[in-house]
């Protein structure tokens, strides 16, 4: 077969595929005449939808990271109960532990020694020691990366994040999620069994409250890890945006 004949055959095959796709699209739009209107409405509502589902996950002590699969976010969309979300997030973080850890260490090389210690403590089951270390590093990374003190009090955090959102509007949803009032960031007086079942209370843990001595569980350690990974993810996005701005100003 000559080169010209091969090219003619390829063009013929391409046109067949193209025509099939075109016909599928035409038929789909005939059957769904309001598709683009519905798509536009969905995209308009998407920011609120993401705020709602990520906010609900944060109430249960969970945050997304750079390795969180779409399947987990689909579970969030279904507005499942805490037990279901706990199970999905535990499975995700245990399955993707190495990848998430690698991302955190790569983003924070100057903190590697401390972070590796925290992660080793977790893998060894020393959750009582791992959780405070991860809380402390999350606060430090937050302050260093985007001058917001994660545990400095809700009003201060809200102001810091609002100022930051003004500079990085595309990260508004993530920043608002970080700024929500949750069991993680509330005062240690949130000490009922129901409240402590949501997430570890950072204030109670870090200040040695006698009402929060039962924080050292595997799931609480994973929730602290989840928060740490989320803070790192936001910090990396902010760095990338700053780099793009600096390039455009050259």
* Number of helical regions: 12
Report the principal-axis shape.
elongated
Helix content: over 70%
The biggest sheet amounts to: none
User: Which parts are unreliable, with pLDDT below 50 for 5 consecutive residues or more?
Assistant: none
Q: Note the run of SSEs as H and E.
A: HHHHHHHHHHHH
Secondary-structure content class: mainly alpha
Which characteristics define this entry?
about 250 residues; about 0% strand; 2 domains; mainly alpha; about 75% helix
What does this structure look like?
The protein is mostly helical and 250 residues long. The protein folds into 2 domains: 1-33; 47-248, no CATH class. It contains 12 helices and no strands. The chain has helices at 3-31, 35-59, 70-77, 82-95, 97-107, 112-123, 127-146, 154-167, 172-178, 193-198, 202-206, 218-248. The mean pLDDT is 81.
Short description:
This protein is mainly α and 250 residues long. The protein is built from twelve helices and no strands. The mean pLDDT is 81.
Which helices and strands occur, and which strands form pairs?
Elements: H1 3-31, H2 35-59, H3 70-77, H4 82-95, H5 97-107, H6 112-123, H7 127-146, H8 154-167, H9 172-178, H10 193-198, H11 202-206, H12 218-248
């Amino acid at each position: 077969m000559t080169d010209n004949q091969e090219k003619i055959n390829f063009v013929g095959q391409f046109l067949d595929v193209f025509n099939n796709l075109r016909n599928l699209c035409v038929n789909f739009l005939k059957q769904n005449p309001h598709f683009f209107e519905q798509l536009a409405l969905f995209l308009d509502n998407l920011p609120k939808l993401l705020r709602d589902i990520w906010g609900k996950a944060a109430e249960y002590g969970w945050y997304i990271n750079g390795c969180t699969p779409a399947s987990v976010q689909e579970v969030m969309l279904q507005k499942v109960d805490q037990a279901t979300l706990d199970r999905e997030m535990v499975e995700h973080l245990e399955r993707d532990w190495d990848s998430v850890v690698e991302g955190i260490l790569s983003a924070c090389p100057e903190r590697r020694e401390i972070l590796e210690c925290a992660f080793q403590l977790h893998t060894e089951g020393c959750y009582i020691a791992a959780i405070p270390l991860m809380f402390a590093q999350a606060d430090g990374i937050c302050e260093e990366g985007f001058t917001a003190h994660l545990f400095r009090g809700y009003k201060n955090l809200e102001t810091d994040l609002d100022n930051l959102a003004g500079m990085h509007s595309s990260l508004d949803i993530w920043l608002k999620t970080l700024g929500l009032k949750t069991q993680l960031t509330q005062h240690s007086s949130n000490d009922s069994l129901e409240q402590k079942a949501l997430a570890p209370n950072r204030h109670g843990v870090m200040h040695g409250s006698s009402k929060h001595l039962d924080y050292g569980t595997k799931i609480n350690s994973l929730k602290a890890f989840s928060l740490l990974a989320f803070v790192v993810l936001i910090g990396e996005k902010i760095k990338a945006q700053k780099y793009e701005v600096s390039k455009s100003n050259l």
